[in-house]
Design a protein that fits this description.
heterodimer, A: about 600 residues, alpha/beta, seven-stranded mixed beta barrel, two-stranded antiparallel ribbon, 15 helices, about 50% helix, B: about 190 residues, 2 domains, six-stranded antiparallel beta sheet, three-stranded antiparallel beta sheet, 3 helices, PIGH-H_dom (chain B)
């Protein structure tokens, strides 16, 4: 049976706090240091003046006295304190607990030193007692942290036991205390991804340099943080979860329910995507139409996103998890906005009003176009057009408008029904409704598109003709074989006719150019409106709302690194730093960029 | 232990360098930039409002004046929060790393921390800046592929832009700590 240590007080500590109980005098160990069994430590070849770092959790700063439990990283000369074991304890049970934790988490957890939270300065006998503990849990170097209750003065010693040659000369090193918040470090996920399960205990983080080793240690010691103060275990620990484990019922329920729900939805979505990729839809006219309609594009995009969200594979790293969460939140927001739009439309019976207003608006647009053409056929902006060409083009376009108006009037009885069904599609999301709106605009302004195509085609032909005849005028020719301009000797009649045609085309140029300009501007206007709608759709698709929400509510989840702050320093006391998690300013980007407007 | 000296930056403005010596392994330099002067603030405000009055006499719309007031206020707040740096701090901790903090006039702080394992060296470089040749202090970062290569150059004190005498002070102290760190880290 091991020795039982009851508190740490000797005779003389009359003003000790109530947490201390007087111990039997024979339980006090021999104050002279016993040499450790393994002899000189090969890692202690440091010279004097080396600074050791001790990472201390802020939650333990007000804990009662006890033992420091954690991991020693020799490459960084730093000790990561994970928890404090309080008096009274049985050393054998402490060693058992640490062996259990080591096996479960593959982290080399040991006793690093002692922690003393006293009302006044350490007494000599107490000092010997604490050093004696170092003989039982032999660890090099042995840390002795001490803090006066209610004051900000800390003291820290790190001692090395030398070999049997010089028992009294134990070297002391300077220690730098770095405080860290365990909860924030764990939740900010700054540690590298989980190591493979077949690695040896404690050797993975030899490759992770610097602070990554510290974060990895804290992250992998979950087994140590499982026992809180309500557990009736043999050993009483103090760490960030010692007031009770943090968990949320809703999160646990959601995790339990997520499995079957995801499976069901994944099956449903795979059925839908299989149906939509069947051969019928790939025939030429249909596939051409599908590619032109932005609604189909948006629906396909949404289907892909939903398949990714509800896939039964877990996310491999935090970035993927963030992306999935962003997609889910954007889908939910989309559907919510769509339902709001639908309820608003139905409440005010806007669909009927819209259907009634559509025909007069189309008529009005056609009338304005007719006025524009009449203006072009006259003397637009004071320019003098070629009368014959002007009349031909103007009449041609006017006839088109007449056809278009007849077509719209033919469709008018069905408009309301179509609009009602379109409004219903807002259930799928606001983005789908906006895409349908953009497609309707494209269909209604189809005649403007046709005019643009005619004007552009004519202008293009004219320019090609002009450039070719201009070359002829100068005595040159385009060599198709060599892709360059060569000189060529033309006959006299070729030159004569060529020059005539050139003159004709030059004088007809202003008319064609003006028509081309006017219709291009109209087409640009329509494209600008469609582009705005697509911009709005892309905004809803790709805004990372989940990350924005995290940035506002839980900024430490988006941590990019750490920053240090020097706390109040007194000469003779160890240097104290506070390590805080610093937040990333740039949000992680979403998976799909902007699409081209249809 | 605190120490304050006054230097000048490349344009001739006054800078104050505060050096705090916490321990032989921890040193902090705080360089404070010239403050925003009342003269420049008045000049900008007056020009914006004169322009607004000019527009107002043309358009007879009083919204322009309210808009000018909003623009001035928002512009000043934005300038103080995003542009104007009050002081820059360099904290060197032996065996941990180097941290640079920029504090803006509105109190916002932006911090970058570089671990000591990534730091190759701290040097003073020359650069051509507009029509001048200036000196600047920078940290050279190690290349993970090549043991003696440099992967990145991180300039320090970019807003304060001190002159060479100030840089030499900071450089000497940095080199002391880096040399000490290299000497003690050669053990396995």
């Amino acid at each position: 049976m091991g020795l039982v240590f009851r508190g740490a007080a000797e005779a003389g500590l009359g003003a000790a706090s109530a947490a201390d109980r007087p111990g039997p005098p024979d339980a006090v160990p021999n104050p002279t240091p016993t040499p450790p069994a393994e002899g000189a430590d090969p890692g202690s070849s440091r010279g004097p003046g080396m600074v050791l770092k001790a990472f201390f959790p802020t939650c333990c700063a007000s804990a009662d006295s006890g033992l420091l439990v954690g991991r020693w990283v020799p490459e960084q000369s730093s000790a990561v304190v994970l928890a404090v074991v309080h008096f009274p304890f049985i050393p054998v049970q402490v060693k058992e607990l640490l062996a259990q934790v080591q096996q479960a988490s593959q982290v080399g957890v040991t006793v690093l030193g002692t922690w003393c939270h006293r009302r006044q300065e350490l007494e000599e006998s107490l000092g010997h007692f604490l050093e004696g503990l170092g003989a039982i849990f032999s660890h090099k170097p042995w840390f002795q942290l001490c803090r006066e209750r209610g004051s900000k003065s800390w003291s820290c010693k790190a001692t090395h036991w030398r070999g049997p040659a010089s028992p009294a000369a134990s070297g002391e090193d300077q220690v730098m205390l770095i405080f860290y918040d365990q909860r924030k470090v764990l939740l900010s996920q700054l540690h590298p991804p989980m190591a493979l399960p077949d690695r040896q205990a404690g050797d993975t983080t030899a490759s992770a340099g610097g602070l990554a080793a510290v974060f990895d240690t804290v992250a992998r010691s979950e087994a140590l943080f499982q026992s809180d103060r309500f557990n009736e275990g043999p050993v009483r620990l103090s760490h960030w979860q010692s007031e009770g484990m943090e968990a949320s019922i809703l999160v646990e329920l959601a995790k339990w329910a997520a499995g079957p729900v995801c499976l069901f939805l994944a099956c449903l979505l795979s059925l839908i995507s299989a149906a939509s990729s069947c051969r019928v839809f790939k025939l030429w006219p249909l596939s051409f139409i599908w590619s032109k309609l932005s609604t189909c594009e948006q629906l396909r995009h949404r289907l892909e996103q939903l398949t990714l969200i509800f896939s039964t594979r877990k996310a491999k790293n935090p970035a993927q998890l963030m992306r999935k969460a962003n997609m889910l939140v954007s889908v939910l927001l989309d559907v919510a906005l769509g339902l709001t739009l639908l309820s608003w439309l139905h409440r005010k019976d806007l669909i009927g009003q819209l259907a009634d207003a559509l025909i007069p608006v189309a008529d009005h647009v056609a009338e304005e176009l007719q006025h524009l053409l009449q203006w072009l056929m006259g003397a637009p902006a004071g320019l003098k057009m070629n009368r014959a060409l002007d009349q031909v083009l103007g009449r041609f376009f006017l006839y088109h408008i007449h056809l278009w108006i007849s077509y719209i009037h033919l469709m008018s009885p069905f408009i309301e029904r179509i609009l009602w069904h379109v409004g219903l599609s807002a259930c799928l999301g606001l983005t789908v409704a906006l895409s349908i709106l953009s497609d309707i605009i494209a269909l209604l302004t189809f005649h403007i598109y046709c005019f643009y195509v005619y004007g552009a085609r004519l202008y293009c032909l004219k320019i090609h003709g002009l450039s070719s005849l201009w070359r002829l005028f100068r005595g040159k020719k385009w060599n198709v074989l060599r892709q360059r301009v060569d000189s060529c000797s033309y006959d006299l009649d070729q030159l004569f006719i060529g020059t005539l045609l050139f003159t004709i085309l030059v004088f007809l140029l202003p008319t064609t150019a003006l028509y081309y300009l006017v219709f291009t501007l109209l087409r640009l206007l329509v494209v600008a409106v469609q582009g705005l709608i697509h911009l709005l759709v892309d905004l809803i698709n790709s805004l990372p709302l989940y990350s924005l929400g995290l940035r506002l509510c839980r900024p430490y989840r988006l941590a990019a690194g750490v920053k240090f702050r020097v706390l109040e320093h007194e000469t003779g006391r160890p240097l104290r730093l506070l390590m805080q998690v610093s937040i990333a300013c740039i949000l992680p980007c979403s998976s799909k960029g902007l699409r081209e407007p249809g | 232990m605190e120490d304050e000296q006054s230097f000048s930056d490349i344009c001739g403005g006054r800078l104050a360098l505060q050096r705090r010596f916490y321990s032989p392994s921890c040193l902090e330099f705080c360089l404070s930039c010239p403050r925003i002067t009342l003269r420049s603030l008045t000049a900008v405000t007056c020009s914006v409002w004169l322009a607004a009055y000019g527009l107002f006499t043309l358009c007879e719309n009083s919204m322009i004046l309210s808009a000018a007031i909003f623009i001035t206020l928002l512009g000043l707040l934005g300038y103080l929060h995003f542009v104007k740096i009050d002081h820059e701090t360099l904290l060197i901790i032996d065996s941990l790393g180097i941290q640079m903090t920029s504090s803006y006039a509105s109190g916002k702080e932006s911090t970058t921390f570089i671990e000591m394992g990534q730091v190759n060296d701290v040097v003073i470089n020359e650069a051509i800046y507009m029509q001048k040749v200036i000196y600047y202090l920078c940290i050279l970062l190690k290349d993970p592929m090549e043991p003696h290569g440099i992967s990145q150059v991180v300039p320090l004190f970019q807003s304060a832009k001190p002159r060479l005498d100030c840089l030499i002070e900071v450089y000497r102290s940095c080199q002391d700590i880096l040399a000490h760190q290299k000497a003690t880290s050669t053990s396995p």
